[in-house]
Design goal:
It is built from 10 helices and 8 strands. With 267 residues, the chain is of the alpha/beta class. It has one domain: 3-Layer(aba) Sandwich (Rossmann fold), CATH 3.40.50. Strands 1, 2, 3, 4, 5, 6, 7 and 8 form an 8-stranded mixed β-sheet that branches. Helix 1 runs parallel beside helix 4.
Length: 267
């Protein structure tokens, strides 16, 4: 997919249906017709303090809060907060003196997240409707930014990282889990809406992704975790011919889940 507004509309519609439990998104597949359920995207949150099963829709590709070095009293922003899963874990670490803000562009997700926060009685966790390319958050206000398998869904990743930079305080940092590529995807995968909302078709090349972070101005970048995501043959054959699938495998194209840390310079 290449049309920016078209991409956003597909993502909104799909994740809105997920929030309302009208659709089940199997990571790497993108719709409920996919017969292969890959679990490597969806890391296990259940043992983390603050975990709330009502907020876990299985849409992540890592555990950014585990690596985010959140401290009591921190202001934490979660980009693409969904039903609030990472926000509630972050709040457990930031404590009652902290402040957690989730931002999501899908009305249904924001509504669901607010309902979950109300059930938990949390008055220092809030959810705002907005897009990552134009965050409804003040400059230099966040101590930590986290995000879980969302940046790959954003058409303008340059703008998304620029906004992340803007809202972080000088010396503050982010920890973002995302999907990146090594090697070029075949055209049928790039153009498939299902593969886009499934976090694959919109992913950047790994080297370009890391370079973009540096070019935005971030420093002390490090990859905190990396693992390859297996794409089942039966999934790929929905979009590729057997010959294309064979070439895909022979070209050693890799889809990876990564968690990346970087800091905004102090001054």
């Amino acid at each position: 997919m290449s049309d920016t507004e078209g991409i956003k509309q597909v993502v909104k519609e799909t994740y809105g249906e997920i929030a309302e439990q009208k659709r089940d998104l199997s990571s790497c597949c993108g719709d409920s017709d996919c017969s292969d359920k890959t679990t490597i995207f969806n890391d296990d949150y259940s043992q983390l303090a603050g975990y709330n099963p009502d907020a876990d829709l299985g849409l992540g590709c890592g555990l950014p809060t585990q690596f985010a070095q959140i401290k009591p009293g921190d202001t934490v922003v979660d980009l693409g907060s969904g039903a609030g899963n990472d926000c509630f874990v972050a709040r457990e670490i930031a404590g009652s003196s902290g402040h957690v803000i989730g931002v999501d562009m899908t009305d249904q997700m924001v509504t669901k997240a607010r309902q979950n926060a109300e059930k938990l009685g949390l008055d220092n966790v809030e959810f705002r409707l907005g897009e990552i390319e134009e965050l409804p958050i003040a400059d230099n206000s966040a101590d930590v930014v986290v995000s879980n398998c969302v940046m790959n869904l954003v058409p303008s990743k340059e703008r998304a990282f620029a906004e992340t930079y803007r809202i972080l305080k000088p010396g503050a940092h982010f920890s973002i889990s995302d999907i990146v590529l090594q090697g070029e995807l075949p055209e049928p995968l790039k153009k498939a809406a299902a593969m886009y909302v499934g976090c694959v078709a919109g992913a950047m090349q790994s080297v370009d992704y890391l370079n973009l972070i540096k070019e935005t101005g971030f420093v002390n970048m490090q990859v905190q975790k990396e693992q390859q995501v297996p794409l089942p043959d039966s999934t790929l054959l929905r979009f590729l011919t057997p010959e294309q699938l064979s070439k895909f495998k022979n070209d050693n194209i890799g889809v990876y889940s990564v968690t990346v840390y970087a800091e905004k310079p102090t001054a």
